[in-house]
Amino acid sequence: MAERNFYAYQIDFQKLKKSPDGKETYSNFWSYRNFKNMIDDITFKNKNDIKRVYNGWFMLLDEIKEFNEKVNNSEHKYMVGRFLYAEYGYVGKLRHVDTLAQRDNDKDPREGEERFVYFYIRASDGLLVLQGDTKVIRSKVESYFSELGKEYLQNNYIHDISVSTLLRGDFLDEIKKLDSVNKIEIELAVEKTNSYENELMRVAKKQAEEFEANYATIVMQSKYKKESLKGYEKLLEKIKPRGNVAPVKGVSNIKVIGKQDGEFKRVYLSKISEKYSVNVKVDQNKNLDPEDVYMKLKNIGLKRELLWREEDGEKD
To answer: Half-sphere exposure of residue 146, counting CA atoms within 13 Å on the CB side?
Structure first.
């Protein structure tokens, strides 16, 4: 057995919505039917066509399974699967951990050891439980669905798809533990939405678009090194309300740097995420047993309460 961490997220689609006064904004909704059709559209293609190559590594949707089970007289419909990725380019000599003996590595530079990242998606509300990994992170999964599903989304008049972090604690409470706050960085995902909720963010968004940038960061730093920022709480409360409510649309992360007991500390919004530590079966090579992982993920989904969604959200 081996312990692995899994993190909870919320999947949303965005659609264009016109208000009574004629203004157009993007609103979020969840539709399992749309998501399933988008995934079918992706997996129908050749695997080389759904591969995304980055600098020195690639990822692709390797496996997907759908289930509809009866649990305690209620329906539990869900999807499980995994992403495959591998790193390539560098070939070094191999070392034995016990003897430090060295030998040549016969791996080709275009070959890489495969890695798998497992996930679960609940049909009823778009809950995503994703295995923690240094490569296949939230933003990579979001961009993968967005890019590979682009044709389907456009054909169905859906603006985009997003993956948002679910929080296990209160971000503002974590910041209040600091003795002083010296720097705040707010990262905006410029291309994701037009519904920014304060003037500061709208200005940053507009300037980033002029530069043809996908992301913009607003940085606020104390005037003097030994002094704390003043009045930052009200700004952060507007951007990230208390509790496990997600930040306003367009904010992908907030980083706060301050001091606690004389030492610099960093509080990241993205790191106060809902986490599950799970013991899963492994083989002699320490590879995870897929069926055991899927069963453990299903159990997480059975126990986790439903996500809150607006009343006007789409239903399947």
So the answer is: 17
